[in-house]
Amino acid sequence: MSLELKNVSKRVAGITHVKETSLTLETGHFNVLLGETGSGKTSLIKLMAGLDSLASGQIILNGRDVSGLSAQKRNISLVHQFFVNYPHMSVFDNIASPLKVAGVARSEIEGRVDEAAGILKLKPFLNRKPHELSGGQQQRTALARAIVKESDAVFLDEPLANLDYKLREELRDQLPELFAGRGAVVVYATSEPEEALLLGGQTALMTDGKVVQFGPTADIYRKPRDLDAAKVFSNPPINVAGVTKQGERVILNETTSWTLPGAAATLADGPYTLAIRPHHVLPVETPAHSVRLSGRVLVTELSGSESSAHFEMSGQPWVSLSAGVHPYQVGEVHTFHLDPNHCFFFTPDGTLAA
Amino acid sequence: MKKLNQRAWLFVTPVLLLVAFNALIPMMTVVNYSVQETFGDNLFFWQGIDWFEQVLTSERFHKALGRQFLFTFLILIIEVPLGVAIALAMPRQGFWVPFCLVTMALPMLIPWNVVGAMWNIFTLPDIGLLGYFMNHTLGIPYDMTQNPFAAWVTIVIMDVWHWTSLVVLLAYAGLVSIPNAYYQAAEIDGASGWAVFRFIQLPKMKTVLTIAILLRFMDSFNIYTEPFVLTGGGPGNSTTLLSIDLVKIALGQFDLGPAAAMSLIYFAITLLVSWLFYTLMTMNDNKS
Amino acid sequence: MAQITLSNLRHSYRPDPADDDDYALKKIDLTWDDGGAYALLGPSGCGKSTLLNIISGLLVPSEGKILFDDRDVTALPPAKRNIAQVFQFPVIYDTMTVYDNLAFPLRNRGRDEDIVKRRVTAIAEMLEVTGMLSTRASNLSPDNKQKISMGRGLVREDVNVVMFDEPLTVIDPHLKWKLRSKLKELHQRVRATMIYVTHDQTEALTFADQVVVMQDGEIVQIGTPVDLFERPAHTFVGHFIGSPGMNVLPCEVKGGAAFFGGEQVALEGPAGGAADGKAEVGIRPEFVSVSTTGGGIAAHVRKVADIGRHKVVEAIAHDSRIHAILEGDAPNAGDAVMLDFKRSQTRLYKDGWLASRPEGDVR
């Protein structure tokens, strides 16, 4: 099964929400749409689901042109960021609702609801109403409704965004198994780069209503096509600075320059934009982290086992992310160490050079 | 590229037909009458804008219009603050909420002519509860069939009794939609009760109040049944509002031309004032 | 400013609470030092918002007392407590300008206009909203609205405590870190006591010097971010902090040694007098190493997630799921591997509570 977008676009009142996009989304793995709020993820999902009409292009679902069909006729499921359930129905009836609409026999409905409720650990709550459930249980009910239907395509629009941090972790862990072997094309929108990496599969990076790169998640993380793609796929934000290449060396500022390793050494001389992910800038020196940077620490953050430091160097903001806890003093000048093997170089127009 | 779905017309057509029959066609008839003179037998003579001139320059029209504005002004100035005050006093949650809501809705459920008749009997000096109480117990002369001031007080109180609930219910809907955090924040910020009303409740009620004022304006400006049943426009012409006068001219005197011209002027005034209200009340929203 | 003491605090939303389950807060004794940055961390429904509302005075506790320094404020309304609170959703006064919003708490207390001006200008500068002072607050973006809400909390110079109730909920993920760091910076400049309520470990650990972890209406641990990560006092803390959280494995204690699936697991030190019987071993994924040749516990790899800066391996040993975080090369799903636990970080938990002690600890 596959979902194919051919030059689809969307304009509302003269404003482009989705620029011309062509994508082929396959079954068997997650297809992640990654982008900031307002980058067009939801608009694109609405087009794919048939909730919005196309300004141009075609949508092919399993070889059938569904461009003109409404959502009801596309055999799809959608799980929204907010917990959308029928408030007056029990959990059982909520899960059963798509089957009842499809006219499935009562006896079969019970079996299928039971199976879905079992996978999503909802069996003890089948007689409750949605408002008697926690946020996580409500969203699991919505997910159960999506899997019970045996849709051709399932759209998950930031389904975990409104859940507690730990619940999000648990449910995210279960999601890939939930849809494995169901044959549906799964599209998952998120604004968190780490979520895309954890879900794996394929990722489409979106900014400004267009897909800037699409491919296997880990690959495009390691090889962003351009500066936009690198920026979208980094949280904390990727460090970006203007550099000049001269001979074998790259010059960051008056005090910092280093000899280029690997492919970057063969670049033509001239100005480039350097980008390096925060976890390749460490507060301690290692054999690999050989380039010294010194910056004034602005803020430090701690998450579980990792700490990050936002620092300022020649007027530019930089971030370092490292394992463990580092006793930075805010305001102090600290030496950071950059790994020259993990730098991206972009040409002035933004495309990846090395 | 995109195919327009023509089926939508199927759903809209009945409504269009209905509107045509109950608004457009009668209105065109009125326009027709307003520029012609007829003496029956379906004979019509072109009159141009004579009727409009006649109506606009007639003292009778000016007086009725003045009374109409006075009436609308009085009921707005009473009903809106009173409605907001009652809405503020109503409980936001708990056992008494449905009780209050039903009590509030009751007057609105009573038909207009019944309201007029009720108040008519209520205020009769010899047998009406209020009339008897005022005249015989308190010794205050009160007879709206004789005294224009008493008649005015009565129709205004009647309208307040009948329609303040609408303002209450709309304002209440606005109030209950304010998240608790706003009240808590205001409490922590040390805001007085007045400041809470001025900076939280009033701004959040603004949209519904705009609707309430518009509805009350249009309804009260076109009011007919209740004052007609209550006072019949009297004593004298003291409570003859525009609509009552219009009916007198059209059906009492059978002056169809002037009546049609007057209807159109009446309609134009209602439209103009409604538009003015709406523009004034929503002006601040568009300012950035 | 003041030290805040909560003593014997209990709260129930029911009129006649019978047993412990009826209480949203079960016996809280806690002291917040003057000028500290605290976080209240826990999942939704753990009672952290209840506790916050009791401190701010929006809720009167069923039992117990709240002291600001030595003054009993248990029955005082919020306005009399001289506190500030920032809510989950930005609360701004729509009809006012940004300046008037910030000035509101001061004007309500009858401060002179020149003091108002000085304070508002200073706070606006700290929050980097000086350029917006004359715009109507209703036209701002959510993150700027929330900044204004924070500003109203900080504008008074004499507040006893500023409380934040999940203040970043409505903020775009990409802007969150900016506000997170802004808050930390504000605390360092203002030095008022601040309490930050959240379910997000990053927000809590970043903001606070001391984190109070709550579960089911009880405090399970109070400690620095490092304490919570390295020596969780309860398996819940181990699970809740870190991602993935601590591995908690069922074990059998026999004569002071722990056995996981029959294999002995070397603990950090003495088992702390844990009686023989069922217990749990806790080890963080960061301290589990995976090899194909070395010693340790035999396991097979179920799943490997490559999250860029490291890989998260999920392995199964003796029917238990064990996570490991690896930098560099990782095995593939289906591989047979050996898991080795870093001894100094392997802890024993009895009935959920930490039992083992570090080597050389002779209590």
Radius of gyration of chain C: 24 Å
Structural class of chain C: alpha+beta
In the residues of chain A, how many domains can be counted?
A: 2
- Structural class, judged by helices and strands of chain A? alpha+beta
Number of discrete domains of chain C: 2
What would the CATH topology of the largest domain in chain C be?
Rossmann fold
Distance between the termini of chain A: 36 Å
- What is the average of the pLDDT values of chain A? 89
Order of helices and strands of chain A: EEEHEEEHHHEHEHEEHHEEEEEEEEEE
Number of helices of chain A: 8
> What is the largest interface, and how many residues per chain?
A-C, 36 and 36 residues
CATH class of the largest domain in chain C: Alpha Beta
Number-wise, the strands of chain A total 20
Features:
heterotrimer; A: 354 residues; alpha+beta; Rossmann fold; OB fold (Dihydrolipoamide Acetyltransferase, E2P); 2 domains; six-stranded mixed beta sheet; 8 helices; C: 363 residues; six-stranded antiparallel beta sheet; 9 helices; globular
How would the blueprint of this fold be written?
The complex is a heterotrimer of chains A (about 350), B (about 290) and C (about 375).
Chain A: E1 2-12, E2 15-26, E3 30-34, H1 41-49, E4 56-61, E5 64-65, E6 76-79, H2 91-101, H3 106-119, H4 135-148, E7 153-157, H5 165-179, E8 185-190, H6 193-199, E9 202-207, E10 210-216, H7 217-222, H8 227-232, E11 239-246, E12 249-251, E13 257-259, E14 270-276, E15 281-282, E16 291-303, E17 306-313, E18 316-323, E19 333-338, E20 344-346
Parallel strand pairs in A: 3-8, 3-9, 6-7, 7-8
Antiparallel strand pairs in A: 1-2, 1-4, 4-5, 9-10, 11-12, 11-14, 12-13, 14-20, 15-19, 16-17, 16-19, 17-18
Helix pairs in contact in A: 2-3, 2-4, 3-4
Chain B: H1 8-34, E1 36-38, E2 44-46, H2 50-57, H3 59-89, H4 96-109, H5 112-122, H6 129-137, H7 148-176, H8 180-188, H9 193-221, H10 225-230, H11 242-252, H12 256-286
Antiparallel strand pairs in B: 1-2
Chain C: E1 4-11, E2 25-32, E3 37-41, H1 48-56, E4 63-68, E5 71-72, H2 78-81, E6 83-86, H3 98-108, H4 113-127, H5 142-154, E7 161-165, H6 173-190, E8 194-198, H7 201-207, E9 210-215, E10 218-223, H8 225-230, H9 235-240, E11 247-254, E12 257-260, E13 263-265, E14 277-283, E15 288-291, E16 297-306, E17 311-317, E18 320-326, E19 336-341, E20 347-350, E21 353-354
Helix pairs in contact in C: 3-4, 3-5, 4-5
Keywords (chain A): ATP-binding, Cell membrane, Membrane, Nucleotide-binding, Transport
Protein name (chain A): Glycerol transport system ATP-binding protein
InterPro entries (chain A): AAA+_ATPase, ABC_transporter-like_ATP-bd, ABC_transpr_FbpC, ABC_transpr_MalK/UgpC-like, Mo/tungstate-bd_C_term_dom, NA-bd_OB-fold, P-loop_NTPase, Transp-assoc_OB_typ2
